Amino acid sequence: MTRHARPVELPLKLAPSDAPLRHRVADALIELLRTGHLRPGDTLPATRALAAELAISRNAVMAAYDELAAAGFIHAAAGSSTIVSPGADLAARAGISSHISPPQPTRDAGRDSPREPRWNLRPGYPDSGLIEASHWRTAWRSAAQQPVTNGLGSSRQHRPLQEALAAHLRRTRGVAADPTDIILVPGVSAALRALAAAAQLAGRQVAFEQPGYPEGRRALVYAGAVIRPVPVDDEGLDLAELAPGDAAVYTTPAHQYPLGARLSASRRAGLIRWARQAQALVIEDDYDGEFRYDVRGLPALHSMPGGPDVVAYVGTASKILSPGLRIAWLIAPPGLRQAVRQALVFTDEAISATAGHALAHFITSGHLARHLARAARTYAARRRALIAGLRDTAPALRISGVDAGLHLIAGLPRGTDETALQQRLDHAGLAVDVLDQYTTTPLARRALVCGYALLPETQAAPAAAVIAAECSALGRGSTIRRPHTAAQARARLRPAGAARPGGPGGGWVLDRTISVVASSTRFWNPIESPTSRVRAARVAISASGWRSVVSGGETHCAMGTSSKPTTLRSCGTRRPCCRAASYTPIAWTSLASKIAVGRSGSRNIADAAVSADS
Fold it and tell me: Which of 570, 610, 566, 569 is closest to 587 using CA atoms?
């Protein structure tokens, strides 16, 4: 028997909320369905009557009814009445809503968001702020004037960019290629996947630099290739480690990533010769070949005799402009070009037509050449500043890989815990990579991979000081004997005049066997040389309110207040007073600051040192 709709009295209450009124009305009706006050077949009140009862706008009630009808909770019946749909009560009890509620912020939501580092030394990122904004806007305005593409592939769709890149590569990298041979891809990883498919590398062995580019390795692995690590040295890829079973070789000859070596000319010729004899493919990733410092550029592998037949040249705009462009280019050997294009069609990987037009205009207008010249000068200055900062604060870090690119290697002592050091640096506000991130097998070598593209010159010295300080903290340990009391510290001090008869007296000289201030293992750096500690101490003394005067090979350090400074004079030797060679900048700064604010409680240097150390 057909059930006749009947009007019902609704105990409807709108819950207090910041949600739109229509959502609150809909939620209230669904709640009545869940509790059984409303059932399938019941007739809902007219929108005007319900609006008057709730003292709200009728438009809000109509919007709520429309929302519930769209979700299937109610439907309109003949005669303009609105009826609860069958199964609406079951849906309400199952927790189904007519809308999606916005997520509520939690108390810990902000804690999981990554913190922006104060010093960003991560490699692989250019400074896009160096791009002239007016030139960039002009390029995109030109691209916006192009017709909107319909998405169908066209051989001429990216011809302007191909022609512009052909001229750019010939001028800057010596790579001669017909514009139609330049295949545009949305990133280096896409190029590697297409090459792996075209050369049928799935299940075959690919020699890959170790350490090497992690994303390139992953792209080849996902394509089915079997990666075989090949070591690199100061001349780049070690050709003696190539095997007859290698179907392809991946290399970064312009600036090995991450160690920074340039593949020597003899090895370049040898690699091409080996590839021709083995009928293997050489993948040349020229990711930042545009940036070279104090050295002449070596030709790209693809430009060498015999290179075009065996070398697949891969370049990208991510290092010269911005990774956000998602534009890279590939020049494959003649026998693989059609297969590469088919692989890209199959995976539907293509660049943005608008971005392609913008980059083409940026190149042909000469703006790219001017940008590269400006960027090279800026990066060279930042590179010099970082190298100088590291050599001043921690010269035992072996700096290498500085001839080209946008990063350098800071070698660490053997056995250093790279992960622990990276975590300490991150906590101190400095983001940097470590060598272990670029390997698949453990390496005896330990190093920081420091990018300088995003590091202003004025911040290079502070960043280097942070690296030196955290190396000190990580390297704390057994060689330092720590005095625990002022008496023990004072026992290690002797009057300057007594230490060296005839020398100027009135100061204190630390026994060379122990460093009172630096006895705190937090500040001791076993990899620093005495010369560097002297130099770092002088800088820190000056920066922290001390005065340091160097004359005649002697160092005079004055400490304390403006009214009556306490002087630690030279003891007549060419070694600095207070044995500055035993102090790190942080230790000097800590001691000076605590004395300046009176926390030491004494003008006695030994008491102050223990206070600063505790």
Answer: 610
What CATH code is carried by the domain that includes residue 52?
A: 1.10.10.10
Q: Is 88 within a domain? A: yes
Q: Number of folded domains in the chain?
A: 4
For residues 571 and 427, what is the distance between their CA atoms, to the nearest angstrom? Answer: 40
pTM for the whole structure: 0.66
- Cβ-contact 164, 363 below 8 angstroms: yes
Q: Residues 501, 392: one domain?
A: no
Two structure tokens written together for 3: 């059930």
Domain match, 376 and 515 both? no
> Same domain for 361 and 377?
no
Mapping DSSP onto H, E and C, the string for 176-220 reads CCCHHHCEEECCHHHHHHHHHHHCCCCCCEEEEEECCCHHHHHHH
Helix (H, G, I), strand (E, B) or coil at 283: strand
pLDDT digits (tens, 9 = 90+) for 393-428: 988 899 999 988 899 999 998 888 999 999 999 999
Is-contact 440 300, C-beta < 8 A? no
Query: Do both 522 and 560 map to the same domain?
Result: yes
Any residues with CB less than 8 A from the CB of 95 and at least 6 apart, and which? none
How many CA atoms within 13 Å lie on the side-chain side of 545?
A: 15
The per-residue pLDDT for 4 is 47
Last residue of a domain, one of 312, 341, 367: 367
> pLDDT digit string (tens) for 114-150?
678 999 999 989 999 999 999 999 999 999 998 887 7
